[in-house]
């Protein structure tokens, strides 16, 4: 599709927006991220699109919103679309998970993309790109294994166990207290009272990576468990999609950055299953841009809600 488009991608750590016009002009902007329960979802997402469309100016042929936290029901989807289409010059709105934008960016054939940041999400396509299969994720309350939040939470749990004698690791306890600016007894209280506790716990994953790289056994075991979860997603995706030997496994997001120890662990474990890491060189925001210019949702049909004026 040729036209003026705007597109968004992101989650707990931030939402990125970009415009592309038929004249070749482009605007890029970053917005604050959020996790479920932090703010009114419908109003926030609708206003995000409306405000950026206003900043870009002029008619917008399509807006694509690809985010980690999606509306819970048809009414919420409809309320976002109603507000956007009424209060902006957006002609068509697509709403989907950020796993869809990630897959559009990172997987060219049959394969799976696993995106791990504050949370985690995965989407596989198979049978010559005629089917799509979402996997994992499910949010910090009941899922998100191998996400930055999960890694941070597991490390803090180890710290608290060391504090009261149930095991755990004393080095992680010392580093956690320094990171959060508190002493052992107050650690749990301080974490719970953070303005954005999920985000702050996720940020501790970087420290866990550093501890593992320095030889801390407990931190290494946490990352190894995270790597197992990522590999489980990959091999499950291949099986569910009837993937062949060229099934692509793409990893994106801060947790799975190329230089991170957990990524190296994943690469080694994938080899045992005849798989390797596929690199496309595109970001999830690039994927949202790809969606914005498609003639139709195609293989992602069941995963994208579309609305028109």
TrEMBL record:
Organism listed in the record: freshwater metagenome
Pfam families in UniProt: BcrAD_BadFG
Entry-linked PANTHER family: N-ACETYL-D-GLUCOSAMINE KINASE
InterPro entries: ATPase_BadF, ATPase_NBD, Euk-type_GlcNAc_Kinase
Domain ATPase BadF/BadG/BcrA/BcrD type, residue spans: 80-287
Name used for this protein in its record: Unannotated protein
Gene3D superfamilies in alphabetical order: 3.30.420.40
SUPFAM superfamilies the UniProt entry points to: Actin-like ATPase domain
